[in-house]
Amino acid sequence: MLNLVLFGPPGAGKGTQAIYLARTFNLVHLSTGDLLRQEIAAQTDLGRIANEIISKGELVPDSIVISMIESKLKKPKTTVGFIFDGFPRTVPQAKALDDLLRKHHSKVSVMLCLEVEKEELIGRLFKRGLTSGRCDDADAATIENRINVYNEKTAPIISYYESQGKYHPIHGIGAVDEIAARLSDAVEEL
Questions:
Q1: Which of 10, 19, 81, 188 is most buried by a 10 A CB count?
Q2: Pick from 63, 64, 59, 160: nearest CA to 113
Q3: Angle, nearest 10°, between helix axes 118-132 and 140-149?
Q4: Which of 41-45, 130-134, 141-145 has the lowest mean pLDDT?
């Protein structure tokens, strides 16, 4: 099975590129952000809790995210694998994903890391905030906090996957199709 972790800071383009990769390689796109936004829109208990956490720019607890992922892995599928978009976000989540996939007789194939400078991220997030209505993209302090949380809690995953030989950096600046071609080339090298 081909299981990709698409990684990068907020605003790096993970969602856009994950959709492309999912179509190109017949992967199930698992976006924890989308799953959480669905819960928020439906105003479920989970959605209300998640909304409070997300609106502060913080990360949703591992137990909630992992249980959502597992429910998706259990569904019947006609695919060659999964693309994880927005997950894992911490080393404990990465370890939990490894355990979860092992339980399903699979593993992470590669972590593709979109690398984008901070100034570019801030510009992209503000632009997205204007068009998407997402509260976590509309406020400068929240955006700054999200980037800081990424650097402190999420970026250490790079070392985790690098130690397994699964880390693959991808230059994340340029036209969407140029970045997609870089990602596609990296996957095809597998």
A1: 10
A2: 160
A3: 130
A4: 130-134
